[in-house]
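Much of what follows relies on a compact textual record of a protein's fold. A record is reproduced here so that you can trace the correspondence yourselves:

. . .
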Amino acid sequence: MSIVNVSGKKAGNIMLYALSTCVWCRRTKQLLNELAIEYSYVDVDLLEEDEKAEVKNEIKKWNPEGSFPTIVIDNKSCVTGYDPDKVKKLAK
């Protein structure tokens, strides 16, 4: 799987599930970068079909709608959609 790691300030184990074509996903990445938060991400639409199905099932554990972006924090909580306020709380 093509997981990209972005270095920055450690704010927990942050995994962003995104689409390469989604403006809200790009804005979420940009916000995490501006806040200098360490995170990993995968552009789900660029995965092979079998990996894509596996990742979508993983996302639905956290976000039953399966929408993007989905951010999973420490395998305990989740932020769905573009939500700058919730993302900024991660930086504190």
Q: What stands out?
A: Helices lie at 23-34, 49-62, 84-90.
